[in-house]
Design goal:
two-stranded antiparallel sheet; 7 strands; alpha+beta; single chain; 11 helices; five-stranded mixed sheet
């Protein structure tokens, strides 16, 4: 607490004391009290006021400092009113009681919200697992049907797109609690890239992509499932925003503490002024508005997951030339 704040809080009593001094001084002079006696009386009065206000200010300052220290040391700030030292004044006791009641209400609301969120998350995950079954069954039926090859191909592409959006919904639902579904294993980076290519093979072929992979055989500690999903999101963006003679390059370079995995395409690119916003939720940019299927969720979800998994991510692009998304994968295992 600053001194001027303390004085402002006690401004009324200070004004009354000053006013009282003037009245008393006028009265004493009226009855012809000497100046020596006046000086003695007002000196004592001034000393008493100085002691009263000075002592009050120092006590309040120490108390506020003590409370600030307690609050800073707390991980859960909402417990402050429960463990703070017992108030010494009645008005402060009322304030603390009000804070405790408000904290209890807030804690209950948070608990209710968390329970509802967990139930919703469980429902989404179960729904995704349930809906994947008819998707896989439909794919098998189409592959073994007598439909013309071009019609067969179109239906499979649409089913794969449905499967992609369903999987995106699942990972979005799980992204808030990655620690519950996060398993780091030592895997070969080439194995991860191979699975990503296999997963997106049909979409890449149908879009006419030439794929160039330059990743050395090196082992790294990561959660393969989550990283495959992140890279798939990046590749889906490349497919969506492709140009003629599309090409996809995937390569890795060793840095000081990371392995930098880059997915680069020769697509439509991103305007320079939009690069800083590509990870914003729902942001599609000027070019994205020209594409009906742009949702602005893919890169947002990639950034969200990378932040939670300790993976760096950055985007470089030149409009009309290329877009390159780089994942900075930690070389050391994280536990």
């Amino acid at each position: 607490m600053k001194l001027r704040e303390f004085l402002r809080d006690h401004s009324l009593s200070l004004v009354l004391n000053i006013f009282g001094c003037l009245i008393l001084g006028s009265f004493l002079r009226f009855i012809e009290v000497s100046f020596d006696h006046l000086f003695l009386i007002f000196s004592v009065w001034g000393l008493l006021l100085l002691y009263f206000y000075g002592n009050g200010y120092l006590k309040q300052r120490r108390r506020i400092k003590n409370l600030s220290t307690i609050l800073s040391a707390l991980d859960q700030k909402n417990l402050f009113a429960e463990i703070a030292p017992k108030p010494k004044f009645a008005i402060e006791s009322y304030y603390f009681d009000f804070m405790k009641e408000a904290n209890r209400s807030m804690t209950k609301q948070i608990s209710d919200y968390r329970r509802d969120f967990e139930e919703y998350q469980e429902y989404i995950e179960q729904w995704v697992h349930d809906v994947k079954t008819p998707i896989v069954a439909s794919q098998l039926i189409i592959e073994n049907s007598s439909l013309p090859p071009e019609r067969n191909h179109e239906l499979l592409n649409e089913l794969n797109q449905i499967d992609y959006y369903v999987e995106q919904a699942l990972f979005y639902a799980r992204s808030e609690q990655t620690n519950k579904d996060y398993l780091i294993q030592e895997v070969a980076l080439t194995e991860v890239i191979h699975e990503v290519i296999q997963k997106n093979q049909r979409a890449l072929i149908s879009s006419g992509f030439q794929v160039d992979v330059n990743v050395e055989e090196q082992r790294i500690g990561l959660d393969k499932k989550w990283v495959i999903f992140i890279i798939t999101q990046i590749i889906k963006n490349s497919i969506q925003y492709k140009q003629t003679a599309p090409k996809l390059s995937i390569y890795a370079e060793k840095a000081e503490n990371t392995i930098d995995l880059t997915v680069r395409d020769n697509g439509i690119g991103i305007p320079k002024e939009e690069l800083s916003r590509v990870f914003d939720k729902g942001f599609t940019g000027k070019k994205g508005r020209d594409y009906d299927k742009s949702s602005g969720i893919g890169l947002y979800l990639c950034k969200r997951l990378c932040d939670k998994l300790g993976i760096g991510i950055e985007v470089q692009s030149v409009l009309g030339e290329y877009t390159a998304v780089t994942l900075h994968l930690p070389q050391q295992k994280q536990f």
